[in-house]
Amino acid sequence: MTLPTRARSVALAFLVSLAARAEPAPAAATEPIPPALRIGAETGGGIVGGLILGGASAWVIYATLNTQGEDTARRSAAQLGGAIGVSVGAPIGVSLTGKLLGRQGSFIISWLSSLAGLGVGYGIYGLIRSGSDSSAAKATYALTLLFPIAGAVIGYELSSSNQTPPPAATAPPWLPAVAVGPGGASFGLVGRF
User: Where would I find the beta strands (DSSP E) of the chain?
Assistant: First the structure.
């Protein structure tokens, strides 16, 4: 066995032994996060995701529509686009935050719940807007932005499991190591010193 082949074999055996004896995460890192903190973080992620996609879609729609005369149609289209963007961006932010916190919720259920929230919020806004053109109608537009975020968080939380992952088993202090090359094989024990 040549020296480069033996060195590669020993390096491979060393890397395999390091991977086999990886230590589990500390107990503090695997403890569940309190529900209020977790839901608050997911809500914050939903707000950020909704702001990014909702703001971008409202801005693009408002900037690309070129209506002659009245600006009302342009603003209405931008408002609708912003609300739809929030209903897509919120579940993305909620799901990413949940994954970072170690939760296993469903993005699809979060997204469908966000769309349901958009439908409820936009329905309330439409009913009040058709009844009067007062400041109350303008204030209820906030529901079309808040209900999708709330729906995304509720859907993600309902679809995530409450089970914590099982703790990783600790590796034994000694592990066998094998290195095979064209000139033969080497056997040994690798341990922690």
Answer: 174-181, 184-191
Q: What is the DSSP string of 14-68?
A: HHHHHHHTPPPPPHHHHSPPPHHHHHHHHHHHHHHHHHHHHHHHHHHHHHH---S
Determine, yes or no, domain membership for 102: yes
Instruction: Determine the pLDDT at residue 86.
Output: 92
What residues make up the domain containing 143? 33-161
Whole-angstrom Cα distance, residue 26 to residue 44?
27
| Structural domains of the chain, count | 1
| pLDDT average, residue stretch 128-146 | 80
Q: Does 157 fall in a domain? A: yes
Instruction: Report if residue 109 sits inside a domain.
Output: yes
- Sole residue written with tokens 């204030």: 139
Among 161, 175, 80, 78, CA closest to 122 = 80
Neighbours of 30 (CB within 10 A): 14
Q: What is the pLDDT of residues 51-110, one digit of tens each?
A: 999 999 999 988 888 766 668 888 888 888 999 999 999 999 999 999 888 888 899 999
Structure tokens at 94: 């909620």
Residue 126 and residue 144: Cα distance in Å, rounded? 10
**Pairwise pLDDT comparison (41 vs 7), residue with the higher score:** 41
| 193: in domain | no
